[in-house]
Amino acid sequence: MSDTYRFPDGFLWGAATSAYQIEGSPLADGAGPSIWHRFCRTPGMVAGGDNGDVACDHYRRSEGDVELMRALGLNAYRFSVAWGRVIPEGRGAVNRPGLSFYDRLVDQLLAAGIQPAVTLFHWDLPAALDDRGGWLNRDIAGWFAEYASVVVRALGDRVALWTTLNEPWVVTDGGYLYGVLAPGHRSLFEAPIATHNLLRAHGAGMQAIRAAGGRQAGLVVNLEPKYPASDAPGDLAATARADAYMNRQYLDPVFLGSYPEELRAIFGEGWPDFPAEDLALIRQPLDYLGINYYTRSVTRHDPSVWPMATGRVRQPDHTYTAMDWEVYPQALTDVLTWVTRRYGPLPLYVTENGAAFYDAPAADGPVVEDPLRVAYYRDHLRAAHEAIRQGVDLRGYFAWSLLDNFEWSAGFARRFGLYHVNFLTQQRTPKASARYYARVIETHGAALGA
Ligand code: BGC
After folding, report:
1. 123 CB less than 6 Å from ligand 1?
2. I want to staple 288 with a disulfide (CB 3.0 to 4.6 A). Which of 236, 343, 347, 435 is the partner?
């Protein structure tokens, strides 16, 4: 086997999940409900009326799930802590039994030789905080910092990587601009405020993690490179808007201390002036940046799309996933090199990458065949390797996801797992992509050349 695709020593080979998507038992042992618990009970918001009450039952099966990780040969696992398990009201009293669940999980992982990478916020805001305005209330930066201190003080000695927020863009885009994710608001005026308070919480959270002795700390964003559909000035301007909105809205303030100019044009009177001291808080030095990459967008001017006036051009000859996302591995190399050029060389992780495809049920055999997902992982890992070859300081890769799980407003109908989950019996079955990924890990990437 050739060494063409060998990854550096010490590279983290991981898989990722998030609390609400896999844990189930949302109110067990004194936990407080989250906005997702509530959103799932709002008629019409989640496909099939699904919810995370059971999901993968991971809260009760974590030991077995760590064994699945060990079987893959993972040396890292990225998961999130449910804020409401630890602080049921979101602020104030700590719920020790909730914290103990994560304490045990961290120990189980370490015993299996797997480094824990912990995300403090992956969308499941305590409902009690939403009742106080959620991300629209400036006090949330303090609430988040207090929660971060509690978790880091409890687990900090054993956790390799801390993440403040997962994909703040999705929280504002889905939660406050278009209303398709919890808490389901649709407002041009709220989205910028939510963005800004998420970033202030990130800044205050970074300070709290460091003060509590956390080791490496950073932020995870989802990036989607935008390529103009043509050289027409309208398409070029639309591409710049789409890029500012999705890719620079969070990274410019964090790394450069200012918001992209285009946001003012997009949000109009909805975009306020923010105080300079807030931007100083937001611009905390990061130990690393995590990038979630799934797809790209070929972008054109489209005045019918509110409020961005940008549209996506479908690529007829390319494969699309069950999410209707174009498979385009080259953009992973592009996005990693772009971040390195624009924001300076810094340690990067691919904190999510993967694909939903229809997987035939596992009833008949020991493995679920998923050739499209095998190809997806092969081609994206090759693209990640190419970024390293071009000088990107990429330190690890986390497949999304370890298990088929609750895919937010799409319910259980979209399967991203390396392991197939039968949601009636909780039976886990490896997919061919799990076997493939294990082989890649075992060979430090060399199997990608086969
Ligand atoms: C999120 C995950 C989600 C995945 C696939 C990311 O946006 O962090 O929670 O399941 O993409 O949609």
Report:
1. no
2. 347
